[in-house]
Amino acid sequence: MKKIITLTIVLTITTLSMAQIRVGDIVLPYKVTYEGEELSLNGAGMRSVLGFDTYSGGLYTKKKYNDPGTVLDSDESMSIRLNIVSKKVTNKRMVKVFKKGFDDAMFGNTQSLDARIEEFLKLFSSPMQINDYYDLVYIKGKGVKTYKNGEELGFITGRDFKYALFKIWLGNEPACKLIKGGMLGHSK
Question: Distance (Å, rounded) from C-alpha 188 to C-alpha 38?
Answer without folding.
Answer: 28
